[in-house]
Design brief:
Layout: H1 5-21, H2 31-54, H3 61-81, H4 90-114, H5 121-150
Helix pairs in contact: 1-2, 1-3, 1-4, 2-3, 3-4, 3-5, 4-5
């Protein structure tokens, strides 16, 4: 098991949490949109599962950067939709945000350490992708915190 498999597995768990939070419930007016979010979470979970299978001792920075991007997408998807979920499901979405954002935070330095030559154009792009993923995941975490602070406790 490589160092990268832990954060990627965290991303996979975050996808499962969001998918569970979006399970069908009777009557919400936005049920179709929540089902789309559920499918997107499922797809991101599959992508992360595949990337986890590729993660080994010699994991390439490409795999790490792609995993960071998927986790950032997942964090944003969860943060943007948590306020519209059922009150009992929203905490799972917020947990998914934090788990995915934590995975991005762990993957970013791995991308940097595996990108041997920062003067190489490809390595430069991977570093930029990881930095962008980190920013987006951090924004999602802040958004989720603000959203859960505004939600009345039940």
């Amino acid at each position: 098991m490589s160092d990268a498999s832990g954060p990627i597995s965290d991303g996979t768990r975050a996808a499962a949490l969001l998918e569970e939070a979006c399970r069908p419930a009777p009557g919400p007016p936005n049920a179709l949109r929540i089902e789309v979010v559920r499918e997107l979470a499922r797809d991101l979970g599959r992508q992360l599962g595949t990337l986890s299978d590729l993660a080994g001792e010699d994991t390439t920075p490409d795999v790490l950067a792609e995993a960071a991007i998927c986790c950032a997408d997942l964090a944003n998807l969860a943060a943007c939709n948590a306020p519209d979920l059922r009150p009992d499901a929203a905490p799972r979405a917020v947990e998914a945000v934090h788990l995915a954002a934590g995975a991005v935070s762990a993957l970013g330095p791995m991308v940097e350490s595996k990108s041997a030559d920062p003067d190489d154009r490809h390595a430069e792009n991977l570093l930029r992708d990881a930095l962008s993923a980190g920013w987006r995941a951090g924004f999602a975490a802040r958004l989720a915190e603000e959203s859960s602070a505004e939600r009345p406790s039940g």
